[in-house]
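Protocol step 4 of 6: structure prediction from sequence.
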Amino acid sequence: MSKCPCGSGKNLDQCCGPIIAGGPAASPEAMMRSRYSAYVLNETKHLENSLAPEARKDFDMAATESWAKAVEWLSLSILSTSAGDQEGRVEFAAKFRQDGTEHTHHEDSRFRLHEGNWLYVDGNIIRNPVVRQGPKVGRNDPCPCGSGKKYKQCHGKN
């Protein structure tokens, strides 16, 4: 028995496997985990079937399959979850490697209960801001390159 790719620590047949095979997801988190596992396993039919009806119109099976095969999936982290009777949210970070570079897909996803199954509605990608590593150099400060010129007359020119 193989471990489930979603990182739950359970075997695939006790975790995401039954959902990928068409069974209902008990929660938004369970559906999110199964969708990640479907990307890892290239089970694109599940990715389509796990979409809310209004989200299916934009689904491109060939593009999804091509992208899923082009990356090496590394890990899934569930950062937060919330669920009401009919709607839920899952914030997650999925790490993958593409063309030798590691990336993180960070998203706040929305799910809705539809005919007894949680389905993916949409999501907002969360972009982490770039943080300056050093102090800000003012226009009239000496240039950090050591030229002796003011920053605006050296490396601060537009």
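Step 5 (inspection) to follow. The chain is about 25% helix and 30% strand.
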